Amino acid sequence: IAKEVAKLLEMKAQLGTDEGKHKFVLKTPKGTRDFGPKEMAIRERAFKAIISCFKRHGAEVIDTPVFELKETLTGKYGEDSKLIYDLKDQGGELLSLRYDLTVPFARYLAMNKITNIKRYHIAKVYRRDNPAMTRGRYREFYQCDFDIAGQFDPMIPDAECLKIVHEILSDLQLGDFVIKVNDRRILDGMFAVCGVPDSKFRTICSSVDKLDKVPWEEVRSEMVGEKGLSPEAADRIGEYVQLHGGLDLIEQLLQDPKLSQNKVAKEGLGDMKLLFEYLTLFGITGKISFDLSLARGLDYYTGVIFEAVLLQQDNEHLEEPLSVGSVAGGGRYDGLVGMFDAKGRKVPCVGVSIGIERIFSILEQRLEASEEKIRTTETQVLVASAQKKLLEERLKLISELWDAGIKAEMLYKKNPKLLNQLQYCEETGIPLVAIVGEQELKDGVVKLRIVATREEVNVRRESLVEEIRIRTSQC
Amino acid sequence: IAKEVAKLLEMKAQLGTDEGKHKFVLKTPKGTRDFGPKEMAIRERAFKAIISCFKRHGAEVIDTPVFELKETLTGKYGEDSKLIYDLKDQGGELLSLRYDLTVPFARYLAMNKITNIKRYHIAKVYRRDNPAMTRGRYREFYQCDFDIAGQFDPMIPDAECLKIVHEILSDLQLGDFVIKVNDRRILDGMFAVCGVPDSKFRTICSSVDKLDKVPWEEVRSEMVGEKGLSPEAADRIGEYVQLHGGLDLIEQLLQDPKLSQNKVAKEGLGDMKLLFEYLTLFGITGKISFDLSLARGLDYYTGVIFEAVLLQQDNEHLEEPLSVGSVAGGGRYDGLVGMFDAKGRKVPCVGVSIGIERIFSILEQRLEASEEKIRTTETQVLVASAQKKLLEERLKLISELWDAGIKAEMLYKKNPKLLNQLQYCEETGIPLVAIVGEQELKDGVVKLRIVATREEVNVRRESLVEEIRIRTSQC
Q1: pTM of the prediction?
Q2: Superfamily of domain A37-370
């Protein structure tokens, strides 16, 4: 038997090699996807909602290259730097694909000495992460960023960023959501009063950041076991990070005997109170939760931080709504631009990033469930013929329509059957058919067929453009 | 002296090292650029014209990842393959940045077994070329591609591609242009009857492709000297490649004693005649030139090829209009999809690519010359206050406006001066100011100021949204 198995294995190995020779691997790179016409239609709907919101708030738009000098990205992302895609050294500069849109934005500001701008930027970013594509986690994915740079009175731009998240998530009708808010200064103050040594602030902050995925017990043992924090300090942190609420919690912490003695915490809490006042004027505090467990992974935040999560639908048997993941996040980063300036001149910034891929996944799943038929073209009319030998007449007519700005198609056949032409309209949702025939040509008319009702009317050739416009106007 | 020089050089070297330590290189990678708000406004104008044209012709839209498996790109670009950007091997798949949108499109068709689609794709592509940025040549640049895939009657989709180029270049008002047309089959037939050995077709074709940049004499010496072609064959090619014209030239070549005996040339000329008939129906032959010197660099073309060039303006002292470079190109590639199919099943394709960067350069230069002031936001109204302590009222009002879909801004100051607020409108082109003050609040009105005329009217708060809409509607 062993001999037989060996023989079979050898045959299999040979087969494998042969296959390898002839079989071309036909796929997109790991963690990436194509967008076909249907997916693009959904994507463009979502982008439209997001861009209108950014424009409603008076943002300009910029774009930067897909790669940056490697050194531009170095030292900005902490532990996540290992996820950066580098380009091969083919001579010349060392380059990396952008990891987010925030660092390129800061580089752009410093390079052009811009101290004051409100801009949005929608583009793909790249992370060599473990993809989980069914849940909308990719290695190539879009970010939709809105940022306000400049020296302003406290919390006014910060409040606008939260208003924007609220508007976009409401507009896209993704279901219930909550926007968690915290402040790096409150976290730092909390770490200090809990007895965390200064040198461990960052790494303990990274541990806290995991609380949305793993239970406190695990985070605690990471703090104590891996990161060498005293059990007492960890327990004190544990008490704080379970707190979440609104203005009442802010007031409570402002009275907290330890926190109220810490300068940065007090600053952070004062600003948080101001933020909540502004959010009350915007009428959106119902969806905002001041949450001491929110930490955010990135190194560059210096003040307010926030993250929007969608809440699970249809879960009557669960006591609390379950979060299904973050769809937007951001915060204040007052030091990042200064890292690019030779003299370290700072430009305070606050911004938000909409994580559109998860939103796509939800919209796609919903569309599939709804059986709504989505059109992937905007064609208004198909130029068709009922008889043979009318290709030239079709070409002449379609050219007239294109030149008049009408969206028109025809089948690329010399003599297509009328049935096939009508079927094409049914399949693609084209609402009108302009039919040319011998008799119509003699009479100087075109037969216009309304696909939905099968009604047919003769339209004088010189009125055709106007007639199509009227019948397909969406006003 | 030698000693002094050595000392100075040493000092300089030390200085160089120190500089290297402190000076951060603040730039975008070689051959790339940022697009600021003004450039983006121009870019979006151009894209709008191009996208409307593609949609007018019934195209769907797709998107693919910015990188592909390295092997997907291998063997598709001939001599130009050396310009491909590879990613660093960080474990996992070997990847390259896309070089054009055509090969990813073919990969997409084969992978999804699509045999019939009309799609456009607008995205950045990457070439490690020598950049000439003032003339719009970059290493990262946009391509706007429209392609028709499927088995159809000859030259109907091909003619539509040329119509599209004609529409876009006319619409963008870039000045006079000519679209050169040729066919790879005519070139191959021409090479055959001139006595070029089969094995040298490709490399001689590459030489012919240089004729738009260097004179015939140079191309001839490359053919004979470097590529070992006989002088007689080269001279025969030289006679053909100076020919250009229209239907008359096609008829003449169909009578050519040598070419008319060559099967592929005859096929190509027959189709070229058909193409001109269709272009006549489209009314665009005035801008089309059948040009035997047009070869196009890429390997994958199999039939019709074309290239649009802008003609130099203001050159009365020159006899012939000078071309300032190609802004669009394309052709038929019937074999490319088959290269990705395990069974080699072919999907005939024809397409066009608009080279938008050169068009940007021209539009930018023109705008700079015209001193037209271009708006970079769409803000309709600035929410302002004439007195102090009205931040809360401004926040309340702007929130109402945003929620009603009005594009509104405010200054992020607690107590901004009215003059500064009005100045901001002048600078950014905001047409209206909604001013809140003590008296207005008591009266339940908002003072609406029209920036251009300095006129001010009191508007009841509940009519404000409607009033802003009417005053800023563009119908």
Answers
A1: 0.90
A2: Bira Bifunctional Protein; Domain 2 (3.30.930.10)
